[in-house]
Amino acid sequence: MKHKRFLTGAISLALVAVVSVGATLAYFTDKTETAENVFTTGKVKIELIDRLPGDYEATKDDHTWKAVDNGDNSSITYNEVLPGDYLQKEVGFSTAADSNDCYVAIRVETEVTSLPHANGKLTEPAVAAQLSDLIREQVEEANGSAWIAEYSVREPGVVTYFFRTAVPAGTENVLLFDGIQIPGEEWGNEYADMAFNVKVQAAAIQADNTTLDTLMDMSWDELTSLE
Fold it and tell me: Cα separation of 130 and 136, whole Å?
C-alpha cells in the first residue's frame, strides 16, 4: 500500500510541474512594415493570315476561276476549279507588337465533302491525303525547311506545321504557303464535281521557359482549349 501511494504522489507532482512550466513561457516579438510585390504576367498574341494576295489575279490561260473572299479573314470560296489551276491563297501568321516571343503552329485540315465518282481506289480520305501532300509540297517549295510537318495518323488530310524558331513580337506576314497547285492531266473525269475544304488554324505558346518540343508534344485540343 505504501508503494502505491508513493507512485500516485510522484505522478501528481509531475503533472503540476508541467502545468507550471507552461504558465511561465514567454516570447520576444517584433514586426516590420509590409512589403508589396507586384507581378504582371505577359501574353502571347498572334493573328492568322488566310487571304487572297493583294495583287490577286485569277486567270490561267483562257480559264478564270472565281474566288470570293467572304470577309473577316475567315473563308474564301473557289468556284469552277479545273485541273492545272493554281489557287492563290496566302496562309500564315503575324505576332502582335505587345506579344511575348512565341513558338507557332498552323494546323491545315483538308476535307473532301463531295466525290460523286468515287470508286474502290479513289475515296474521299485518299483524295484528302493527296491534297495535303500537294500543300506540303507548296510549303517546302516556298519555305525550304523553315517549317516542320507532322501528319496525323488517325485523320487523313490533317497536317500540323511547326515554325522551327521562336518568333519575336511584331513579326508580320510569316507565310506557310501562298497557293495550292491543282494537278493537271493526272486528274481525270473521276475528279469531276468534287468539292473540298481547306481549314487552317494557328496556335502559339510562349518561348521563354519552353522549347519547340513543348509545343510539338501538346495535342491540338490542349492548345486550342487554352484561352
Answer: 10
pTM of this prediction? Answer: 0.78
Q: What does the H/E/C string look like for 118-178? A: CCCCCCHHHHHHHHHHHHHHHHHHHHCCCEEEEECCCCCCEEEEEECCCECCCCCCEEEEE
Q: How far apart are CA 24 and CA 174, in angstroms?
A: 75
**Side-chain half-sphere of 226: how many Cα atoms within 13 Å?**
14
CA angle 42/203/181 to nearest 5° reads 145
What is the rounded average pLDDT of the residues 180-196?
90
What pLDDT score does 9 carry? 37
Planar angle of CA 158, 136, 226, nearest 5 degrees: 45
**Phi, psi at residue 6, to the nearest 5°?**
-65, -45
Asked if residue 78 has pLDDT above 90, the reply is no
